[in-house]
């Protein structure tokens, strides 16, 4: 794999890609077997997830493997195909096998989750809404603990929003907010000034096919306020349209 230049050419790219998946699966199995052999499987949490969707570079046939289903976008974008990933957690005697949760979450949630499991719980300062980033110097994480969901004590944890920004393609912003993470606002290209904000109903349109921004100006305004508040200028990853 050569990064942005894609995968090295080979005679059977689909078979090679499938072999990589099988190889990973086999080694995860070896890891689980080792936990059993060491006698620590019952006291070990196994977490499996990803940080992005399938890649856009050459050498990957995402249509053939149906890597994204009906989701739009891919790695390097803030469309659902770039950021919506499954997460599988095994925790014997705590998580019921085969159980599911629809609680929207993202990577910043795992630090407070694992910290609480270890016995330390971050508490929001007075006046700070759970699920929003901490003020400078505050003793809490950007994410929220998912422990109550893992234990089956709550079916859904509500939060104010989840925010992303990415410098790829001259800059992108996205925010998911509302009950159950229903609404998704995205600015897919900040090259344009003023950049266009699109709004989608993820409950009924997870493929982000129908932009409903014109029908919900109040939601657009909410999303823009969050985007303005949460953006922090970065010298390493500048977004010219915002900085």
UniProtKB/TrEMBL annotation:
GO molecular function: arylsulfatase activity
Enzyme Commission numbers on file: 3.1.6.1
Keywords: Hydrolase
EC category: hydrolase
Transmembrane segments: none
Domain Sulfatase N-terminal: 13-119
Pfam families for the chain: Sulfatase
Entry-linked PANTHER family: ARYLSULFATASE FAMILY MEMBER (PTHR42693), ENDO-4-O-SULFATASE (PTHR42693:SF53)
Family: Belongs to the sulfatase family.
Protein name as annotated: Arylsulfatase
